[in-house]
Amino acid sequence: MTAHLPPNRLFAVNSSDSLESLFATSGANFRLLTDEQRQASLDAALTHWNGRDDLWVYGYGSLIWRPEFDFVERRHALLRGYHRSLCLWSRVNRGTPERPGLVFGLDAGGSCRGMAYRIAAANVPATFTELWKREMPSGAYLPKWLACATDAGELRALAFVMDRSKDAYVRDLTREQLIAIVRDAHGSYGPCSEYVLETAQALEDAGIHDHKLKTLVRELKALSFPRD
């Protein structure tokens, strides 16, 4: 059974003025990629691939608890230069165009502990095609091949990092704004709070410690179930 937090309407109302102005500008230039544009992005990412080697994919959020592809190996991986952040508007899956939610992206700076998945060479074309459909519907991410540190040595993995030039990128949220959005947003995949809680649980189950995310979860739960 999947748990999610009930909405705290008083908390959301107190932040409504500033949130409404954020929502009003969040989808200014929101556009889905065409099939041709998405294929061009995929082709560019695989330009260096010889068709024989296995490839690695880096997961830091939902790819950890819902990868949806076959892999032959999985390793804990440390990615330097980027950190996990609720910095991407979600206008469909965890929110609506009028009241978008937030999902995780890899934002510049710091480091991120996640998982690297090795995809067999024979499965790369089909796996990456589906991965692009999932991760690149609007082009909010930049696919990059980045060095990841693992216990078995360094590897290069494909990671989807935030494109800070896009309107989908969220910056400079106050703590109150972030919590209010997460608590109240709801999209076709369910509540935004559910997504945050499931990601936090998946990281814990995988032995990945994200202290910032744990603090956020404690704050969300405290607001929903305050102590007497």
Layout of strands and helices, then pairs:
Layout: H1 9-14, H2 16-26, H3 35-45, E1 55-59, H4 62-65, E2 73-90, E3 101-119, H5 124-135, E4 141-149, E5 155-162, H6 175-184, E6 186-187, E7 190-191, H7 192-205, H8 211-224
Parallel strand pairs: 1-5
Antiparallel strand pairs: 1-3, 2-3, 2-4, 4-5, 6-7
Helix pairs in contact: 7-8
**What's the total helix number?**
8
- By CATH, the superfamily comes out as Gamma-glutamyl cyclotransferase-like
Question: At the third CATH level, what is the topology name?
Answer: Hypothetical upf0131 protein ytfp
Amino- and carboxy-terminal Cα gap: 27 Å
User: Which blocks of ≥5 consecutive residues have pLDDT under 50?
Assistant: 1-16
How does the helix and strand content classify structurally? alpha+beta
Let me know the number of strands. 7
Strand order of the largest sheet: 1-3-2-4-5
Radius of gyration computed on alpha carbons: 18 Å
What is the typical, i.e. mean, pLDDT? Answer: 88
Range of helix content: 25-40%
Q: H/E order of the elements?
A: HHHEHEEHEEHEEHH
DSSP strand content: 25-35%
CATH architecture: Roll
From the spread of the alpha carbons, the general shape counts as globular
Oligomeric assembly: single chain
Domain tally: 1
Sheet of most strands: 5 strands, mixed, barrel
CATH class designation: Alpha Beta
